[in-house]
Amino acid sequence: MPLLEHSERMLDGPPLDGRSERLDAHLARLGALPRGADNRDLIPSLESSGLLGRGGAGFPVGRKWRALAERNASRAVVVANGAEGEQASFKDRVLMAGRPHLVVDGAILAADAIGADEIVFYVGSEHDAAVLAMSRAIEERRAEIGRPVSVVTAPVSYVAGEATAAVHYINGGDARPTTTPPRVSQRGVHGLPTLVQNVESLAYAALIARFGERWYRSAGRYGSKGTALISVTGAVRESGVREIELGTTVGEIAAATGASPSGVQAVVLGGYFGTWAAAGNVWGLPLDPAIMQSRELTFGCGIVGFLPTSACGVAATAEIMAFMAKESAGQCGPCVYGLRALGDATARVAGGRAGAEELGQIERWTSQVRGRGACHHPDGAAQLMTSALNVFGDEFVHHARTGRCSITSARIEAA
Amino acid sequence: MKEARLRVDWILCDGYGLCGGLAPDLIDLDEWHYPIISSEPVDRRFMDDAQRAVDCCPVRALTLDRTPPRPRPGPG
Ligand SMILES: Cc1cc2nc3c(=O)[nH]c(=O)nc-3n(C[C@H](O)[C@H](O)[C@H](O)COP(=O)(O)O)c2cc1C
Ligand code: SF4
Ligand code: SF4
């Protein structure tokens, strides 16, 4: 895949075959971790690098570190977020399993920069190889880390990776979001100001610390600079994690992973939180967060999922909505009942068991759940649903009117 | 007087919908009796209704927030 080769930065080095890069190899390849005299030196560099958080929300990493570094309280905590409960995403687990020391590097730098007393690696408990690799990496570097450090395994759940849920769990509670304010940056682990940062964001910070922001910005074809990990799934020959230069197009990713334009109907971008787009409209789309946002699409946590022409977009959406409903943390009424209603109604449409009036209800519930939860889970579900109605609108109507799917063109088996 | 917005703590709210009856011009209820509230500041004319709904919420889930809204999901 020549197109992607020059963008291999994070994934440069030994192949990602499940074996983790050991400390000596990591040091031989990248050199020692630079830990400056003034620990805060890295913050301006991160700010001008333009690095955005890779956990989904895309918040600037440097700005977040600065806000924590300039806090009033003395003590603070860093949480490296590797929960990755998103079904279609696997870049975090692959990164942690393959390059654990890069993640540890980033966490050390963050703790130095903001003056944190403790580091917690919060890793999805189902990601066995990642848990093992991170635990071993920490053991090897305890002295260098120089502060209390632990691996906390996150329960298997979609919302467990949300920042307040992560903090609540680390503090001994359940992995469910809590009401903000207070934000975790004000009151997090042990009640202390806490930096919750995605593991990929931390690993890139470790590369920027070594090679500088100019180096980072030398990749990136449009406004958004740098490179990113993406998870490619669906109608491809080789699903898996890739590293791309920002601005690489959907079509180039398809070509590199063996998805043919004629075999793809639609693309889900950003994740279950994200947006559907018709394949024809986005083949030339650059994966550049700013450009995507201007087109009401999401980079999210870097998911590119190809829906084959042989599949039903309504059924695919119903599957996602059922998952989102099931994964509601069950605390906020509008999220619990609204997502359940949406999931059930979408399943009825997909199954040819809905009337036309049901589409109106789906639209109403979609706009109703937005912003009505303690966390952004319902907003993500609404965003996905809105894009589904745009992209598969005709097919929703066809299902509701005729009880048939025009892709499979058969009467749907009532489930 | 500063602008104020009604805010719901969704984890606390029990969905009995009491607030909807007390401030019908400001609060709609969905089919599960959870409040639907505009994110716009409360119209001065209805400030008393808003305050009454806040005072009567049995679980203190409803508040009048006088701080400006956050534009975007910010740092965790
Ligand atoms: C429902 C939900 C689930 C989330 N799951 C994850 C996750 O698994 N991993 C992650 O890094 N961020 C997750 N996030 C985002 C975190 O709240 C937080 O923004 C992120 O960890 C911050 O790191 P970043 O700025 O480097 O992206 C989730 C957010 C929501 C609303
Ligand atoms: S909005 Fe949904 S997922 Fe988020 S805390 Fe409330 S019930 Fe849980
Ligand atoms: S009165 Fe309070 S608890 Fe009841 S629905 Fe309104 S906000 Fe929720």
Brief account:
The complex is a heterodimer of chains A (415) and B (76). Chain A has 415 residues and is α/β, with parallel strands linked by helices. In chain A, 44% of the residues lie in helices and 13% in strands.
What do you see in this structure?
The complex is a heterodimer of chains A (415) and B (76). Chain A has 415 residues and is of the alpha/beta class. In chain A, 44% of the residues lie in helices and 13% in strands. Chain A has 18 helices and nine strands. In chain A, the strands form two sheets. Chain A has a five-stranded mixed sheet with strand order 6-5-9-7-8. In chain A, strands 3-2-1-4 form a four-stranded parallel sheet, sandwiched between helices. In chain A, 57% of the residues are buried. Residues 1-6 of chain A have low confidence and may be disordered. Chain B has 76 residues and is an alpha+beta fold. Chain B has helices at 18-22, 47-56; strands spanning 5-8, 27-29, 35-37, 62-65. In chain B, the strands form two sheets. In chain B, strands 1-4 form a two-stranded antiparallel ribbon. In chain B, strands 2-3 form a two-stranded antiparallel sheet. In chain B, a hairpin with a 5-residue loop joins strand 2 and strand 3. The interface between A and B is medium-sized, with 30 and 18 residues.
Mean of all residue-level pLDDT scores of chain A: 93
Trace the largest sheet of chain B across and list its strands: 1-4
Largest sheet geometry of chain A: 5 strands, mixed
What share of residues of chain A is helical?
A: 40-55%
| Cα gyration radius of chain A (Å) | 22 Å
Overall mean confidence score, pLDDT of chain B: 89
Number of H/I helices of chain B: 2
Strand order of the largest sheet of chain A: 6-5-9-7-8
The third-level CATH topology of the largest domain in chain A is Rossmann fold
SSE topology string of chain B: EHEEHE
Assembly state (oligomeric): heterodimer
Low-confidence runs of chain A: 1-6
